[in-house]
Amino acid sequence: MKRKKIILYVFLSLLVIAGAVGFYFYKEYNRTHKDTAKLKPDYTVTATGLLKEFETNEQTSNKKYWDKVLSVEGMVKEVTKDDRGFYAVILGDTAAMSSVRCSIDSAHSNEAVTVSRGLTVTVKGICSGYNADEMLGSDIILVRSVIDKK
Amino acid sequence: MNMKNNFLLAATLLFLATTGFAQKFYTKSGKIDFDATSASSPEKIEGVNRTATCVVDTKTGAIQFAVLMKGFAFERALMEEHFNENYVESHKFPKAEFKGTITNNETVNYSKDGTYSVTVKGKLTMHGETKDVETQGKLVIQGGKVNANASFNVLLSDFKIAIPGLVADKVSKTAKIIVSCSLEPLKS
Q1: How far apart are the CA of A8 and the nearest CA of chain B, in angstroms?
Q2: pLDDT digit string (tens) for A88-140?
Q3: By CA distance, what is A94's nearest residue in B?
Q4: Distance (Å, rounded) from C-alpha A79 to C-alpha A92?
Q5: Is the dihedral angle over the CA atoms A64, A65, A71, A77 positive or is it negative?
Q6: How close is the nearest chain B Cα to the Cα of A94, in Å?
Q7: What ipTM was reported for this prediction?
Q8: Which CATH superfamily is domain B23-185 in?
Q9: I want to staple B159 with a disulfide (CB 3.0 to 4.6 A). Which of A33, B74, B81, B129 is the partner?
Q10: Boundaries of every domain in chain B
Q11: What chain B residue is nearest to A82 in terms of C-alpha separation?
């Protein structure tokens, strides 16, 4: 009798563990990206300051900023919309070639419509790195960006 | 950007202004799709990057692409993390680059609207490995802009990207790369 009870408890607890593990994997597998608007910035910087930092030392800056949430304040040089309706807000010094290019999260496209060249805005996005280019000007790329402040 | 480059740029712009025709076309918002869905997979293994840089030199036919690996977006966050951490190791190899030429560039009239079939040949560098790539593509010239489209397959093992046995039924051994860029004349 006692033995049967122990077996039952062991069986039940295994079932619970299996369920929990299964649930965890299911959740993890279906996990989507968090809305950047709800994320706290790891760093708060200005577009020109960030560009200077990457220009001075790309490797150290990469290590510091990769995959981090950045809140970048800067002057809007251009707002672009591609043929599929995806927006990008380009920040930086209008006289310089280099910029911080922020791909706007498609769920936040309506925010991109409200900004235009010459405005100073704060964009929050995930840093995916630096694309150095002598001829076209170097860029820092932010993905899944949202407009934080106007 | 130093003074010399600024001077060169100014000189180029002046040259362009006097000739009235851009020699180079470029974009910084090119789109590159990466699809490694295997035929038997129930889900799509695909990422998209909308921040590719592309430059075409109409005179020489030279064509270049550069893309940040971390800029590829996947629908599932876990898939994107695996792509970056386990497969392409983007922290070690942050960029993929293609440098090549349009081999039949003389058949393209960049100042006349139309659709031109082109052959592009060059070297693709990804995950620290460089391989020769040749593909057919299309250039559509319309109203002073150039649309460049091409798709080709790469063997992931050529770039030393290993697919673990566990996911071999989902992740294909070859990846299809689809490029679509809308290029503008390089000026101002």
Answers
A1: 34
A2: 999 999 889 999 999 999 999 999 999 999 999 999 999 999 999 988 999 99
A3: B188
A4: 12
A5: positive
A6: 11
A7: 0.83
A8: Lipid/polyisoprenoid-binding, YceI-like (2.40.128.110)
A9: B129
A10: 23-185
A11: B29
